[in-house]
Specification:
single chain; alpha+beta; Immunoglobulin-like; four-stranded antiparallel β-sheet; three-stranded antiparallel β-sheet; 3 helices; 31% helix
């Protein structure tokens, strides 16, 4: 095999790898996590996914610290689930982090927060609404 042919094959292979890498790096949140109202003690799910999941790993942070799975709060696929919301443990900026494990390129979602309502407040609102009707 001639040196020119070998060189040409190597260039083609390099271009194919770079092209595949660029395709893997083009992803965006769809859906991105959104802030929600939730009654303290109730369950909530924050959704997170990306446009192209190929070679993507996910994890969640609260105020910049990675969350660990517990029986109360865990990552379910790409989403974050909280079985019972606790104002002391769930207040802050929640973010979904999606990382391409091949290239190391990571996207951080915009912050989502839980507007945690107390049960008494929501009962008062429902009684007020029914009285005004």
């Amino acid at each position: 095999m001639s040196a020119t042919l070998v060189c040409c094959c190597l260039v083609c292979l390099l271009l194919a790898v770079v092209g595949a890498s660029r395709q893997q790096d083009s992803f965006y949140f769809d859906p991105a996590p959104v802030s929600q109202d939730v009654v303290e003690g109730s369950a909530v799910r924050l959704r997170c996914d990306v446009s192209n999941r190929h070679q993507i790993a996910f994890y969640w942070t609260l105020d910049g610290r990675a969350l660990t799975n517990t029986s109360r709060r865990w990552q379910d696929g790409t989403d974050l689930r909280i079985a019972w919301v606790d104002r002391g443990q769930d207040s802050g900026s929640l973010r979904c982090i999606a990382t391409n494990v091949t290239t190391g390129i990571a996207l951080r979602s915009a912050a989502a927060t839980l507007n945690i309502l107390c049960e008494l407040h929501t009962r008062f609102l429902s009684v007020s609404l029914s009285l005004s009707l």
